[in-house]
Structure formats: structure tokens, C-alpha cells
Amino acid sequence: MDNSRTATVDIAMNPQTHRLSEKKLRKAKEKFIEGVLFLCAFSAVATTVAIVAILLYEAASFFEHVSIVEFLTNTQWTPLFENPQFGVMPLVSGTLVVAGVALAVAVPIGVIVAIYLSEFAPHKVRETVKPFLELLEGVPTVVYGYFALLFVTPMLQTFMPELPGFNMLGAGIVMGVMIVPYVSSVSEDAMRAVPMSLREGSYAMGATRFQTAVNVVFPAAISGVLAAFILGISRAIGETMVVAVAAGTQPNLTWDPTESAATITSYIVQVALGDLPHGSIGYQSIFAVGLVLVLMTLGFNILGHLLRRKFREAY
Amino acid sequence: MTTPDLNSLRAMIAQHKRYDILFGLVGLLATMVGVVTLVALFVDLIMDGYPRLTATFFSSFPSRHPEEAGILSSWVGSILVMITTALAAIPMGVGAAIYLEEYAPKNWITDIIEINVTNLAGVPSIIYGLLALGLFVYILDFGQSILTAGLTLGLLILPVIIVATRESLRAIPIAIREAAYALGATRWQLVSDHLLHYSSGGIMTGIIIGMARAIGETAPIITIGALTFIAFLPPAPFTIDPSTDMPAGLFDWLFSPFTVLPIQMFNWVSRPQVEFQLNAAATGVVIIIATLFMNSLAIWLRYRIRKNIKW
What we know:
CATH topology of the largest domain in chain B: MetI-like fold
CATH superfamily of the largest domain in chain B: MetI-like
Oligomer: heterodimer
Strand content of chain A: under 5%
Strand content of chain B: under 5%
Largest sheet of chain A: none
CATH architecture of the largest domain in chain B: Orthogonal Bundle
């Protein structure tokens, strides 16, 4: 190589200074690279700060027009009407109802799948099924929305003829199936973390597999299963496209899943689709409800991670 | 205590064994719910959308007449947004992972970065849309462009790439690092000549999963205000724009309005006419094939790596 030849010539001419400057150069280069890599990693912090700053900034201008008390207690959300009402309750109720339906589907199925895969399934079944569950997680949410609106809801309407075309039930069920892989993989991790000796003790007492799973493994993994439950809630309340397509767009303060209602996320989509001028109160309102959404998911995420860490440290 | 009656004992054991078998069946059934849904979803989409999947569907712009409408602008938009996303997210994600795994000292700054990476993975995607709307569209003034969308999705998949890269770096045994240092390699030489080579498969898997997620992501792109009706393509470099008679610059396409496949599908799904919903189904087939293909590629790649690695 050319470089090395000139280097040898240089060293022959002036070995001492050359080695020093080469070392310095190398050190500087290493420092520079470390700096660049640090900036890459720091972008995660910058993103969080930017999210919080933008939400707070726009929400602050929103709360100059609307008092926080009105925001939290008013029961109507009609920001685009002539006499706008800004009560976030209907959006929160819609969000929670859909999430509730989703969890009612995802938690039982997810936990059964987790018990089955960690305690019952032969190795071969597990190796075949897990990729399928992963694929299910990879399906884009707008496709699930289509499925909820044009497949599940018509199917439900054959049992419940008075079910409206847009409803929270169909959206919730599809969302539940969507988060099953997530709930099951977190709970399965928790069950696999239960030490073998506990199972062996149970089998030695003559318990069957089912008895061992339900009476020994499940209670030992309970904090992990709870974590799966809570992380599932946080997923469901942040999910957007399924509800935007299938749950309706009318804010509606109700706890009845067979009605149609808007959620926090579908409201944001609805506003973004129209062209509200930058700086108007409608524009600011999506940041205010976005802030509510972030606070809700953040709370659930922190709780979930605490529980998850607890089961990891138990043994 | 009296000896229990042998027959009732046997009956009890048989009973419990039956529970065992029963639960095995229930478990299998519950597991099948996922598989069945996946199949039902796919079959439903294909049944509705297959007749629309013709060559003209791919080469036509959206239109008011459902049978003339196509997805030309949206698949081109999707590909351009994906390229921008990859250019933004891959260097940044891999760099961040290398720093956290190989360079980071144990101090509070590192702790804060770690917490943030974990948290960002749990932030709903629509919040990234709000961030982009406030920051990229209005403060940095990129407008509702391909650049904004690419950067937004790049931030969104950053945690996915970081986590995958870190896992594959962590799997490399310490002996490799010691050997490199023993020969006088600097830290960057170790990373670029050794670690990146051994972990490239794992990093690739993470990138593919991240990109598969980005291609189907709809909410953040709607939130930045992407248009749903685009009947033109972004300007290719150096082509003449008929309205101004000026050649387009090399990067003009980055600032062009655009639409992507999932937005096109969402737009058609929300229309009442059945014909448009068939178009939506056909678009859904295209999206789902793209994501399923990428995800299976990632799963296969991971499986192969796991099988081949023997340190």
C-alpha cells in the first residue's frame, strides 16, 4: 500500500515526531467518532424533550383560551362548532371503552396462549406458531381497520341487528386480536423466568401439568402477567387507525361499546385530515388532547416496567 | 386417616388428566385464533381486491371514478418515504447502539439515554405525528413533504433499530474484543473491522422489521397533514417542469407533496361507495404482501443466524 510506504519513509527520516503526531491524530479521530456516536445516542433524549416541549407549548396556548377545569369537567367536545365546547371527557371515555373491549379479548386469549406455549406446547408447535404470532404483529393497523369495518362489524350485525356501522365493539375486538401477540409474548417471558425447580417440586407431588401451570407457574409469574396487561392497555389507548376507520368520529360520552364514539387518537386524525389553520384553537386542541394521551400511556408504561422488573428480580 | 377408596382415587386422577388434555386443546385453539385471523384477513382482502389488481391499477393516479383510480402516486410516495426513512434511521440507530453498548461510561447521562430509548418505544405513533407537525412542518418549515414524513418515521423506528443492534452486539463474546485490543486496535477499529461484521445479520433483521413497520404506519403521516389526493409524481432530478420551464434540482423531490399506500387505503376505506372499498382492499393486499414479505425475511434471517452462530 502506498500509505504504509510513505509512513516507513517518514519514520526513517524522523521517527520520534512522526510517531507522536500519528498518535495525536489517531486520538483526535477516535474522540471525534466517539462524539458523533454520542450525538446519535443523545438524539433519543432530544426526541423526548422535543415531544414534551412541542406538546406543552401548543397546549399552553390552548389553555389560555380554555380553563383546565372546563377541559376536565365539561361533558361535551365540540371544538369545531360555532359555540365550541372543550370537555375532554367524551374522548377519554371513548378511548377507555375501546381499550376495555380490546383487553377483554386480548387478556384471556393472551394468557391462555402464554400458558400453552410455555407449559404445554411441544417444541415443534411452538417453533411454528411463534413466527405466525410475530407476523400478526406486523400487519399494518390500517388493514386491521378495514377488517373491523367491513368484515367483523357486518358479522356482528348478524347477531345484533341494531349495531351501527361504526361502533366501538368491532374496533375493540379487532384491536384485541391485534395485541394478543404482545400480551402473550410478555406473559410467556414471565412464565419462562419461573425456575424449573418450582415445576419439578410440583410434579414430584403428583400434580398434573394443568395443576402445575395454574397453581404454581401462573401465581409465580403474576407480576409479569400484570405487566403484560398494563402494557397492553397502553398500546390499546394509543392505537389510531383501527378506531379512526371503524369506531366513528362523533365524540360521545358513553360506556356502551355498541355505540359509535370518537377516541383521542381518532379526533387527532379527523382534525389533521381537514385543513385547520396553524395557530387556531382547533389546531391547538389536538396538542392538548395529545398531551392527555401521552400522560395516560406514560403512566401505564412506567407501571408496567416496574412490574416487569419486579418479576425479573424475584428469583 | 382412612385409606381412600382406590376407585375414587383413580377417578380423580383420570379427571385431572382429562383437564390436562382439555386445556391442551383450549390452548391450541386460542393459539389458532391468531393464525385464523391472519388467514381470514388475507383471504377477505384478496377476495375483495383481486379483480382490481391489474397493471393499470399500479400505473394510474387516484381518480373520482373508482374503476379508473390507481395507486401510482402512493406506491412511488411510499418508496421515496422509505428511502428517506432508511437514510435517517439506519446511521443514527446503529450509531446510538454502538455508543450505548461499546462506548458509554456508567454515569447518569447514559442512564438518562437508556430510559429515553425504552420510553420512546412505548410512545404512541400518533404522538410522533404531533411532534413532526409542530417541529418539522412549522418550526423547521419543511412543509408537508417527503422529507418530513421520512424523518418522522425515522424517529419512530429508531428504538427498534437500536434495540436489535444492541442485542446482536451483546451476543459477540468478550474474547473478540480482547483479541482486537491485544493487537493494538483502537476502539473504532474494533467496532468497524470486527463488531459490525459479526453483528451485521442481527442489525439487518432489526432494520427490516423497522422498515416493515414504517411502510404500514399511517397515523403520524396523516397527522403531519399529508394530502390524500395526489395526481402527480414528485419531480425526478433534472426533469423539466412544464409550468416553470426550469429543470428540477437533485433534491427537489424531498420537498414535494406526496401520499403513501396506507393513506390511500384509509382514504378509500372511508368512502361510502363499495367500488372505492374494493380499491382499498386491493391497496391493502399490496401493503400486506410488502410487510409480510419483509417480516418473514427478518424471521428467516434471525433463524438462520441463530442456527449458524457457533462462537
